[in-house]
Automatic annotation (TrEMBL):
This is Fatty acid oxidation complex subunit alpha FadB. It comes from the Bacteria. The chain holds residues 301 to 594 of 714 of the full protein.
Amino acid sequence: KKKAKIAAKTASKQVKSAAVLGAGIMGGGIAYQSASKGIPVVMKDINTAALDLGISEAIKILNKGVQLGKVTPEKMAKVVASITPTLDYTTLQHVDFVVEAVVENPKVKDSVLQEVEKAIGSDAILASNTSTISIDKLATNLQHPEKFCGMHFFNPVHKMPLVEVIRGSQTSDDTIATTVAYASAMGKSAIVVKDCPGFFVNRVLFPYFRAFSQLLNDGADFRQLDKVMAAFGWPMGPAYLLDVVGIDTSFHCVDVLASGYPERMSALADDAIEKLYQAKKFGQKSGSGFYTYT
Ligand code: NAD
């Protein structure tokens, strides 16, 4: 009975316009996905080069669709036109929903979230695409933690069906309902999960990455391990997947998880991921990581 009462009071709102903060691998992908499902999106970054890259990634995906006959040139033009790149917050005033997808650094996210909260309307929902950082931790300095939650997409956004919606201790039922509805409107399957470092998927995935880097410390070869995991039936091995995710992002994720679960996961110490990070070999996005990309 109590459940039915709560359900009756919960209302999802239709998201008609959105914004994405950060035009990187994830921000660019989320902006494309929203625009391709007819929900226009403002894409905000701190530099023009990143915005150009975000738009060109969307164009790449759409071009492939046109070549395969799945997307018409008219639809392509419409989708591209509904992504508005920007370097400032003023255009965010009228959007219904904001997804923060800047670097996986708690300090940077904290200041970006506080800045954006001042720039958006009082009804707008703010969600973070953080991979690992606790939603309650990110909500600490927000004025409206009830309008804040996690919305964790996977990479590449246009191909991966799952979205984790993370409920912080102060997140309202309406915020969760609207976020799930927005994920569905974007063609995704949402699961609602409790808040903790790493949520569900990365609590499973990162111990696997950690075991992989420990095997490398023991003298294993990353190419061989990738081949073995492919033979095991996984779509790609751990080294290639780390390059796709981004070595910098993975480095920060291990950091958050090792402090969240010190008894289960050791911090990086002189291992392959840390060495690549220090050498600024961030994976596919920087042209080299475990592998080299041209
Ligand atoms: P990325 O390095 O590709 O992009 C980050 C972008 O944020 C860059 O374009 C950078 O210029 C921009 N940025 C930095 N500071 C900013 C600011 N103050 N305002 C606006 N933009 C700013 O990183 P990414 O892989 O897209 O990751 C973004 C977020 O998504 C992280 O929290 C990450 O953990 C999460 N995530 C990543 C993956 C993945 O596979 N890469 C998957 C799921 C979630």
